[in-house]
Amino acid sequence: MEPGKILVSEHDGAYVIKLTGDVRVTLCTSLSNYMEAIFQSGHISEVVVDMLEAEGVDSTTLGLLAKLAIHCNDKYQVKPVVFCPDESLYKTLSVMGLDDVFDIAQTVPCEENDCEELSIISPSVDETREQVLEAHRLLSSFNDRNKQEFMDLICALEESS
Fold this sequence. Notes:
Elements: E1 5-11, E2 14-23, H1 28-41, E3 46-57, H2 59-76, E4 81-83, H3 87-95, E5 103-105, E6 116-117, H4 125-140, H5 144-160
Parallel strand pairs: 2-3, 3-4, 4-5
Antiparallel strand pairs: 1-2, 1-6
C-alpha cells in the first residue's frame, strides 16, 4: 500500500478532504487541526470526503471524519458526502454506521479540485492517545457492534491516561 496523504481544498465554505493511500493515525493530528479550522470558520456550505484514491483508512481516521460529519449536521444542517468507489472501504463505512451521518456515494465526482497536502504534525504520545480515544468513543456510540469492537481499546487507553 502507498503511504497515506490528506489533501485539502476550500472555496467559499465548500471543503474537500481527499484521502489517498493508506491513511493512518499518524495523519490524524493534521486532520484534526484542519477540522478545527473548518469548525472555527463559521461558514460551511458543503463538505466532500474524496476516498477515490484511498487504499486503507483506520478507525481513528473514521472517528475523526464522523466528528466532522456530526458537527456539520448539527451546526450547519449540512450532511457531508463521501465518494468511495472501493467496495471494501464502502462496506467498512456502512458497518461502522457512518452512512447515518454521511451521504456515501460509490460513483466518481465529475471534477477534481486543486488541493494542497496537509503537512504532517508529529503529536505527543498523550495527544495521539486522546485523539484515538475520542475517535473510538465516537464510533462506539454509533452502534452495538462498534461498542463491542472497540471496548477493550477504549478501556486500555483510559487506563493509560
